[in-house]
Write a structure and sequence with these properties.
mainly alpha
Length: 471
Amino acid sequence: MERVEGYVFSALCGANFLISCLLFSTTTREQREPYMDEAFHVPQAQRYCRGAFTEWDPMITTLPGLYLVSVGVIKPLVWLADLTGKVVCSTAMLRFVNLLFNGGNLYLLYLLTCKLHPREKGNGAARRILSALSLSTFPVLYFFTFLYYTDAGSTFFVLFAYLMTLYGCHGASALLGACAVLFRQTNIVWVAFCAGTLLAGRLDEAWLTEHTKKRDERPSRVPLSLAGAKRVAVFLLESLTSPAHLRALLAVAWPYAAVAVGFLVFLAVNGGVVVGDRTSHEACLHVPQLFYFLCFTLAFAMPAVFCRHRLLRFAQALRHKPLLFLFLTAAGLLLVWCFTHAHPYLLADNRHYTFYVWSRVFRRYAAARYLLVPAYVFAGWHFLDSLRSRSLFWTLALLVCLLAATVPQRLLEFRYFIVPFLMYRLHVPLPSLPRLLLELALYAAVNAATLYLFLARPFLWPGSADTQRFM
């Protein structure tokens, strides 16, 4: 059976690569010149192809991981195929590197699904394969496969690092995490998540050991109350300040600590997270960014996780704990009022879908941001409820990293949601075949719509002859 699953997955990988190549060819034919951020990435990669590693465009804000990998892939191919002229490190050839990352992401998503859901009954092999395919076509990630952006490579190295963590290869995981940081500095959060899952496993074991000694307590459940929160806080404080626990953890997690120290050195030398132009990438306390992510996740994960029984559980939770939800709604209103930020790019660039979301909803109707707070509360409850099968401390590690990955970002940009969404979706219970087919159909429809708008609906700005495209 495992051999058959391997054959089917291999055939699926080939079909996925063929279809992606056809879409890549169409995209490159319609948009031959670098577009949007490619105007910075492509020339910088071409400098590296010429061996000019000391030349740097000060407008680029990420480290040179994408360019280094591109040169490492393209140079051997150029030598083997004896290529010369403009085709070497052309825009099309550089974009093709991301197509290779897309194939790698599909394979990694399949391996992660197999590792996280190894004994699923009822079409388990088919569900694992279909789940990996569906996630590899996740619209925000898949669209940028056809452009020379950092997203495909960044996601590849984060997923690879996490896979190595799950297999206990922490040195390899830390090294791959460092590669992910070279693609995007904020990936240090996901290196911390890899270390956090290791810590969560140790805490789960300690919690179980401590509380199974008490016959009147159920160690696997923590009551949703102030008393329960206090118990967890006291346990965490004792565990994280225990020299014995810290020594045992550091003996295993030292590779991640080494990456963290290296990142701190980078921050001290560079004077911040962003390299190059920092004026448009200043960190701030943008709490509603977390709310946008929760709604985004609910929308794209709905075919896989949304169900009538969860709605009934939410209604029961409202009835049993009305004061808690009233408090959460009031806190959400306060956070939206005090910490909502609109980045200048969001207000000025009508090539992005987020421009239309903001201008036609939040900007047009002043009350809209407050009326959506109950939806944020439900999305947050749904997010946590769908992760009930995961341990308390693992969920806490994910939430801490989710906050660190979203809240400091001033710009509302769906690309920032790719990795946290994939981490969430990988860890919910494996959906049934009909649900996975529905999810795949949704993603295919969104991909078809976005590629159609990008390729077939170009437009011009007043006073400019350059073609603009929706993305």
